């Protein structure tokens, strides 16, 4: 049996789909998996090649590069994230049909949420398509409900006076809405709406989550399966799917050796996903807040950007520069021995896995969230872009594994005193201990979910059985 997997550009999309591809190849040795990579001149992060090519692949998995394309004529500087990803993916699809034919027409194609242009191509080739939702099941419920909201609400969703109620789910405050739904006139709303409207064409929807983590939204999807005009395809929670082995760089080795000499749960890790950058003013406050807190830390640092909070999304790892040029004067000297700074990119999972890591200041991208929970590390929620505010609300209010620092009234940045307060709360208070014990319970549930007979294991088995049965039909 042959299955192909197609992520859209961006590390947060590529990583969970590649992990799915690896798990499928290991899960059932009768499956051959082709992992298709879209290559454009606008999306070429060094971090991607390090991740894809630095370790041996399991037998049965092959990486297939879709012929490189030049997108500089179609991508404009003013395009927001979802538009950019979608336009790049559409260009990549120009050769998708011939690639799939050359591969001998796989029995199924698993696509990322933003790759829905593949539905038409695959229907011409009679290949069933499965969607993979890289964000949470809660995001999926909101997405499935979006066409209803779109019909019923006039004007902007962010101007609604009340939280948005979705059948069977926690209400969403308009302030926490995902970026693409914050401006219905922007092109990225039209793109996300288009992708979501095509979801019923999928033969199934895989989600990087597990039953014990997102019982409520998963139940809501099953019980209210007519969110769209058409029935929702079967949903398969198959997570957590997180990075396993990766070749460590010399700075990763340095971090891990440094962590080896620290007490358990004593170091705060700070990283903002593949795209996240801070404003100049906010970076200064975080630096001095960390220094005030007197807690140990590892900080993945990037040059600040005052205009775009996701400015390294397509080129992460190539923005290496000297942190001294933008850190406050004297910060590195004052925190010597207490903190470490890493330029642009670190092997996050290796750091989260280390027993000395006891907290994660995170932008709450879904992969980072899942990785943190799976390693039992509580979170300081620092959402920046995409659907991260929704994730932060879920982590702090529904699951109780995170704390969120607040801006003072009328302030444009979170002040150093607040940062220091929250860091100390998480790292050394009784309340922090309670949060830590909650996340450790969820960590155990994550392990159970993927073990033989666990909920995500069973979900993946069902899917593989379905593929086998469909593949054996004449
Ligand atoms: N990541 C990493 N090192 C870094 C920053 C990010 O390994 O310095 C990985 C992280 O482990 C996660 C992915 O990049 O797997 C980021 O995905 P997420 O959904 O958290 O955020 P996005 O980048 O999509 O905003």
Automatic annotation (TrEMBL):
PROSITE patterns given for it? UDPGT
The enzyme's first-digit EC class, named in words, is transferase
One GO MF term on file is: UDP-glycosyltransferase activity
EC code(s) of this entry: 2.4.1.-
Q: Report the SUPFAM superfamilies cross-referenced here.
A: UDP-Glycosyltransferase/glycogen phosphorylase (SSF53756)
Q: Does the keyword Glycosyltransferase apply?
A: yes
- Is Transcription regulation found in the keyword set? no
**Pfam families according to UniProt:** UDPGT
Record's InterPro entries?
Answer: UDP_glucos_trans, UDP_glycos_trans_CS
Give the UniProt family note: Belongs to the UDP-glycosyltransferase family.
* Protein name in UniProt: Glycosyltransferase
